[in-house]
Amino acid sequence: MEKNDFIRNRIREDVAQGTLEQGVITRFPPEPNGYLHIGHAKSICLNFGVANEFGGKTFLRFDDTNPLKEDDEFVDAIQDDVRWLGFEWDDRLTYASDYFQQLFDFAVQLIKDGKAYVCSQTPDEMRVGRGTLTEPGVNSPYRGRSVEENLVLFEGMRAGEFADGEHVLRARIDMSSPNINLRDPVFYRIRNIHHQRTGDTWCIYPMYDYTHCVCDALEQISHSLCTLEFADHRPLYNWVLENINSNYHPPQIEFSRLGLEYTVMSKRFLAQLVADGVVSGWDDPRMPTIAGLRRRGIPASAIRDFCDRIGVTKQDNTVEMGLLDFCVRTQLEPAAPRGMAVLEPLKVTLTNYPDQGGEEAGEWVDGVWHQQNDELGTRKLHFGPTLYIERSDFEEVPPKKYKRLSPGEMVRLRYGYIIRCDEVIKNAAGEVVELRCFYAPDSKSGSDTSGLKPKGVVHWVSASEGIPALVREYGYLFTVAQPDKNDMAATLNADSMVEHTAFVEPAVVASDAARFQFERQGYYYRDPLGLSADVQDDTPVFNRIVTLRDSYKPTQG
RNA sequence: UGGGGUGUCGCCAAGUGGUAAGGCACCAGGUUUUGAUCCUGGCAUUCGCAGGUUCGAUCCCUGCCACCCCAGCCA
C-alpha cells in the first residue's frame, strides 16, 4: 500500500512536476559519536525507504566535523546497523570531511564577499553578545574587520598559528534577528586535534550549520530530511546556500523524532549507561539501540514494520512499547519453531510410570516444530518418570476457571500424556517441592483413548534429558513510561534483567535455528555471545525477545 | 511577555468545506493439545477551547489555551 505521509506527498509532487533532474536523492547523516537507536531507524527507513520507492539513491554520510567527540568504532558500528536493517548505499558512503577543502574555499569566498569575519571574542563574551530569547544581541567588536585582515587571520587559523578558542569564523548576518541561529553563527572553530580521517591536515573544523547544507548541495540531495529541532536552522541552511557559489539548493523538510515509552532516545544518556556499567554495552539487549534490539533477537523486518506503522508527521509522539512487541510477534509467529523450556522448575514424579530400570527409563515422543507450519518438521521429546513443569502451572488452591494443575485435577503434558496430581510434597519451609502424579498410559498425544478431559495443556521438560540453560528475561530500562529527562537515573529499573536457570528440551539446544517460541511463554533468541567472553562454558543462553500475548486474568478466589 | 513547531479515540495516524479511514491497545464471542495464533463483532454524534463565515466547518476567519524546540567555539 502506498504511504501518504506529508513528506512522500511532497516528493510525489516534486517528481510529478519534473523538477528533479537527478531523481530522488536522500541521505542519512549520522554523527559517529555513538550507536544508532530505534529513533535513527525511523530516519533510516524514511530516507532509504523514500529513495527506494521513487527509484532514487541514498547516501550514508558521516557527519564527522567534531573530532573531539567522534570515533571510528562508531563508524563501523553504524554501517553494520544500517546494513543489518536491510539498506544499501553501494558506493555512496561519504564523510563531511571529504568536503573540508571545498568548505574552506567557500568560506574564503564568504569572507571576500564580506559575508563572514573572524571573531576573537571569548566564548563567554560571545554568549553575552548573542543576547537572549527576548533581547537582541549586539555586534561583536570584531565584526568590522576588513576583508584583508579576515583573510590573513583565517589563513592563519588554518595554518595552525593560533590556540584553540583564540578565533572563530562567523557569518555576518543579523545580531538582532529574532532567530538566534542567525545572530552571526560560528562557521569554523580551531581544534588542534587529530581527526580520525583527515589526520593533522586541518586544525580548523566547520560547524554543523555551515557543513550540512553544503554537503547536501554538493551531493545534490533532492530532499534533506531532518528532525523538528532543526526547523529553526532552516533559515540558516538557506542563507548559506544562497550566499555561496552553489547551483543546487535542496529543501530541508523536518519531521518529528520518535518517542518510545519506558526508554529514552538520548545518545548522551545511553552512552552514560554504558560508561557506568548499568548495561553490558551499547548492544545490551535492554538498550533501544539497533545493536541492542538485534542482540535481543528482534528481527530487522520487525523494526521496518514498526517504522511503517508509526508513520511520519510533525506531531510530538510517544509510541507505546506494545506496538513494537506486536511487530515482533507478527514476524516471529509464523516463522519461529516451537519448543519447550521450563524457567522455574517444579519436579513432577509419575508414580505409576513403568519402571524400566535406571537410565533406560522413559520414551521419546513426537512433537511438531510448528502447529501451523508443517514445513518446519518434527522433533523428538523425551518423556520419563521424572519431569519438570513450570511452578506457575500449579496452584494448591486454584482460582476459578484455572486451566492448569492443582490437587486432584488433570492436565495434559503437551505432546505427552495426561497426568493427575495426587500428592503435594513440601519442604520444612512449607514450599511445594514436588508433585506426585498419576499418568494415564492410554492418553498419549495423538493416540488418546482414555476419554479423559484434562483442564488444560501445560509445557514440561524431561528431568533426565532436559538441558540446563541460562534464560534472560528483559524488562523496561525505566520504571515509568516517560522518564524525566533531567533525572533519568531516578527512575532506572533496577530489575530490568532477570536470569533463570532453566531446563530446555534437547531438540531446541541441538537445533541451529536462532529464534524459538518457548510454548506458552514467549519468543527467545539464542544469544550468539553465549555466557560471557571470559567464561568457558557450553551453557546455552537464551534472551527473551518478547512474551506471548497473554489474556489470562486470574479471577478472584 | 522573542522566534519556530504541534494540537483528530488510551497510543500512533488518515481526512482539510459535505456530514470522522486504518493500525496498536482494549472489550465480547467462535476455533484451538500454546489462556498463543486464527476468525467474527464492538470501540470518537465528535476533531484543544470560544466566537464568526456558510445551507453545511475537523477542514475557512478571529481570538484564546496547552504542549514541544531554540540563547554549544555540539549535531
Sum this structure up briefly:
This protein has helices at 6-16, 38-53, 72-85, 100-112, 123-129, 147-158, 208-218, 234-243, 267-276, 290-296, 300-310, 321-332, 506-510; strands at 25-28, 57-62, 93-95, 116-119, 168-171, 186-190, 204-206, 224-227, 252-255, 338-339, 341-342, 345-350, 363-368, 378-383, 386-390, 410-413, 418-426, 432-440, 457-458, 460-462, 467-474, 497-504, 515-518, 522-526, 541-547.
What is the rounded distance between the termini? 49 Å
Class of secondary structure makeup: alpha/beta
- Major beta sheet summary: 7 strands, mixed
Unreliable spans are: none
CATH class of the largest domain: Alpha Beta
The CATH architecture of the largest domain is 3-Layer(aba) Sandwich
Given the structure, what is the number of helices? 13
Q: Approximately what portion of the residues adopt beta-strand conformation?
A: 15-25%
The named CATH superfamily of the largest domain: HUPs
Specify Rg, calculated over alpha carbons: 31 Å
Q: How many distinct beta strands?
A: 25
Strand order of the largest sheet: 10-23-24-25-21-22-11
Q: Please tell me the total number of domains.
A: 2
Q: Would you tell me which CATH topology of the largest domain applies?
A: Rossmann fold
How does the overall form come out from the CA principal axes? Answer: elongated
Q: What is the arithmetic mean of pLDDT? A: 96
* Share of residues in helices: 10-25%
